[in-house]
Amino acid sequence: MAGHRAQWKGFIKFGEVSCGVGLYTAASTSERISFHTINKKTGNRVNRIFVDSDTGKEVEREDQTKGFEIENGQYLMIDPEQVAATIPESNKTLTVEAFIPCSDVDDVYFDKPYYLVPTDRVSSDAFTALRDAMEKSQVAAVARTVLFRRMRTVLIRTHGKGMIATTLQYDYEVRSSEKAFEEVPKLRIKGEMLDLAKHIIATKKGTFDPAEFDDRYEAAVGELVKAKIEGKALPKRKEVKVSKPDDLLAALRESAKMLKAGDAKPKRSAANANKGTSRNSATRTPAAKSSRNATAHRKAG
Fold it and tell me: Which of 158, 163, 148, 153 is nearest to 114 (CA)?
């Protein structure tokens, strides 16, 4: 990928075939507005230091080590070099262990996506053979390797001319959905209420285009920064009215009535029907533009 640096370079191996590949970050937060912690009295940045929880005195870097709590307030000290020694050795190879139906992995296990591409012309033939065979067979590949000092399981799926490699959470890291939903009451909605809800869904159907969805938090922070720079009144948040059970049917009826009245108007995508201005480079809000152009203020707080 021209202009981008690979986060990891190695090989992918399936059967006795292998080829050079690189992983490139597919999502980044570098474009988000960020803040520093500032001393209110001086306007200077605040530096983070480590202090002893008992004495309150600063602990220098050379006196810091790792610790595992074995009981309340009692720690087993472990040298960082001992931790480093436990990291599995990496052979820089994504070894495919199985090919599975694309729908087999619940997306709750998805961690972080990377673009997977061949690293050179020699590897392109084997890479393309794997990609096309997976696409024709409608399967994904499950592979394992050491990534960023940890043994990781990776789900590999075809994506256009390349592939997407998504690191997966381990089973112990994913919380039980049964426990999460255990307090949700068992209710059955029937009759007019269900029909109205289905009608609203039917009239709001659309397609997903990620470019049409705003990061509303980022836009709101941009408006805040712009208002502060220009000395204007700060934007006020609109309160959301929660539909109470007694008012739910009336709210559904009103929603259906409004949608019916709007049928004659030009259709917009599902995203545009529920958003403000897109944050694409050509249509960013003035607040977002101002916050990005004013570099000195963008990192202020």
Answer: 163
Comparing C-alpha atoms, which of 153, 122, 149, 152 is closest to residue 140? 153
Enumerate domains of the chain plus CATH numbers.
8-27+87-171 (2.40.290.10), 191-298 (no CATH)
8 A C-beta contact, residue 139 and residue 99: yes
pTM value is 0.65
Q: Where are the beta strands (DSSP E) in 119-212?
A: 139-147, 150-159, 162-168
Contact between 163 and 113 under an 8 Å Cβ cutoff? The reply is no
| Torsion over CA: 187, 192, 195, 200 (sign) | negative
Contact 277, 220 (CB under 8 A): no
Q: What is the pLDDT along the chain (301 residues), one digit of tens a residue?
A: 655 788 899 999 998 999 999 999 998 777 788 888 999 999 999 998 999 989 999 999 889 988 989 888 888 988 878 877 877 777 899 999 999 998 899 999 999 999 999 999 999 999 999 999 999 999 999 999 998 888 899 999 999 999 999 999 999 999 988 888 888 888 888 888 888 888 888 887 888 777 777 767 777 778 788 887 888 877 676 776 766 666 777 777 777 777 666 664 544 444 444 444 334 433 344 444 444 443 434 443 4
Length of the chain measured in residues: 301
Secondary structure class of 11 (helix, strand, coil):
strand
- Residue 31's identity, in one-letter code, is E
